[in-house]
Amino acid sequence: MTKQVNPEVAYKKGLYYLKGEGEGKSLEKARECFEEAASQGSEQALFQLGEIYWWGKPGKDVKKAIHYYELAADKDDKDAQHALGFAYQYGHGVEVDLEKAIDLLMKAAMQG
User: What CATH number does residue 97 fall under?
Assistant: First the structure.
């Protein structure tokens, strides 16, 4: 995306591309929209980028996934806190750290 848009608009457009609604499914376009929204502070977009890289859409990169989960978790995104807590609990992409896992999972749980 070349021009700056509202991060909420970019995030929602990314969801449309991710789910195949609107203009059709395109994981690459979804990633681009989420990157635009994330660059403007959207914690939801940061979480979605983590999901894209965690699940291998279009290519799995656990280090990038953890990076985006951490950025979103630092902004109190409960989904990112949950995903990151799971990663620390089981050592997926990070060293096992049960204290950190519990802290993140508790933060996520407190948000509902």
Answer: 1.25.40.10
Tokens describing residue 101? 């896992």
Q: How many other CB atoms sit within 10 Å of the CB of residue 8?
A: 13
Q: What is the number of domains present in the chain?
A: 1
Q: What's residue 33's pLDDT?
A: 96
Q: State the average pLDDT for the chain.
A: 93
Contact between 5 and 36 (Cβ < 8 Å)? yes
Q: Is the pTM of this model over 0.85?
A: yes
Q: Is residue 61 part of a domain?
A: yes
pLDDT-derived band at 14 (thresholds 50, 70, 90) equals very high
> Is residue 19 packed enough to be buried (19+ CB in 10 Å), middle (13-18) or exposed (0-12)?
exposed
Q: Which domain holds residue 28?
A: 7-110
